Model the fold of this input.
Amino acid sequence: MIGPTPLLDFFKRGEVDRETRMLAAEGALAPRAVEQLSILVLLLEDPDSEIRQTAEATLDRIPESALKAFLARSDAPIGLREFFGDRGIFPDEMPQIELEDEADAPLVEHEEDLDLGDENESKESATQRIAKMTFPEKLKSAVKGSREMRSILIRDPNKLISAAVLSSPKLTENEIESFARMASLSEEVLRVIGQNRAWTKSYKVVLGLTKNPKTPLAMALTFMGRLNSSDLKGLSVDRNVPEGLRIAARKKVVGNLSGKG
Done:
C-alpha cells in the first residue's frame, strides 16, 4: 500500500500556507491520485471557507467512474474508501489482495501555464528559470518539472519545496541515491529519505546516507550495520563523518576481525 508522501505529511501537520492550500484545492499541485484525493479530503475541513468550497468543487469535477476505478485498487487507502462510501461511491468491484502497480496520474487534471522543462534540460537553463519563479511556480516545478529542476529544488531552504521534490512521481532511484550522498541537503530531507523503506532497500542509498555527515547520527548508526566489510572499513577512517560514527565503525571492524580469529 502507498504510504504518506512528504508533501501529504505537510498538509496533515497543518504546515502549509494559504496560497499553497488553494493550489491544492484547485487540483493543481498533488503528483498522484492518492495524494490528490487525500489532500482534497483534508482541505474539506480547512478553516478557510473559500478553500473548503474550492476543494469540494474540485472533488465534484472528478468523474464517478474514475473514482470507482481508483477505489477498486488494492492500494487505495481504507480512509478514502470510507469517505467516498459515505457519499454513496463504492469500488467497481472488490479490491484484489495483491498490490497493483501504482497509478501516477492525478484524477483531476489542471492546465499548466508554466514551462516545466524536459529531462534533457541543462543545469544552467534550469537554474536561470528557477531564479525567476514565484513560490507556487517552484512548488509545481518540484513536483512536475525536469530532473535538473529537482536536483536544484531539493536544496531549497523552504521545506515544502524539498518535500514536493521527494513526492514527485518522476523521481528515480538514481536521483534518490544522488540525494543520499549530498552533504548540502538539510538533515530533515535526509531523514525523510532514510525513513522510506522502499528507498532504503537500495544499498547505494544506505551507503550514501551512512557516509553523509548531515544524516542524523542515530540513523547513520543503524544503517552502518548493513554495510559490507569493505565499506565499513572505509567508514572507520572517514574524517568527514561524525566521530561517534567513525568510532562505532572501527569497533565493529575490530569485532568482525576478532570473530573471524
